[in-house]
Amino acid sequence: MDNMNSTPLSVEIFQMEHVLGSVEKNLEVIIRSINGSHSDLLVFPEMFLSGYTLGKDTFKTAMDADDAMFQPVLDAARKNRKFLIFGFPERSERIRGQIHNSAMIIGPDGLIGVYRKMHLVDFGPFEEYAYFTPGVEPFMFEANGFKIGMMICYDIFFPELVKQYALNGADAVICISASPSVTRTFFESLMKARAIESTVYFIYSNLVGFDSKMDFWGGGAIIGPRGNSVSKGPYYEEARITGILEDAEIRRARSVRPTLRDTKPHISDLLCSWGKGER
User: What are the sequence ranges of the domains in the chain?
Assistant: First the structure.
């Protein structure tokens, strides 16, 4: 069904320094931010709740999505009528001992769900496969009439994920990230490309500050569906980055460059057949 929403969605990216390993202090930052924000949707980076470079401490820091510690956050979101996203290490619901690099999605009426990072990083300084199990499912939710797809960091390198979100009705895609300074050029190129090729708003929230082993550059951004910059955060310092999502802008982008209409999903199947000699 076509989304006939006409009410803008206000978004606020919280580019705040976290305390490595201190879930309690980082939760306090989230709750204060909820209580002090005038935006509809609040976004925190990948692994904000615990910090990214925990190493073996990842296993003992991991938590369940329904842990009682989240109740004050749920209460604050409900009281202030907010949508909220933040990254955390999550114990697997299915297999004891496994952990996911996850994003929690909360709404005014409680927990909406959890997205688990599907593409883990195991090259350069990254060692995610030593601690995490990849997720297997995409995740979409709705906020004030806007359909939004979720991804985490390295997921951005796989354009098929954003394209499939868009083909299934997404108006925006949120990428929470823990990108260190050496990867900044790649991410700034890709977030704009993902927005343009799928005519979606692209919302990027990155860690900022030094986290034991890595220096994170921040640079949170909201990019419009035609590749225009809605708002952009500074590098290497705390900031609150705000922007407005408008359905008129999405409709305009898709009328002047109808990439979703012109997408040929069957091409991947044809190429797979071609590679197997089934021509």
Answer: 9-275
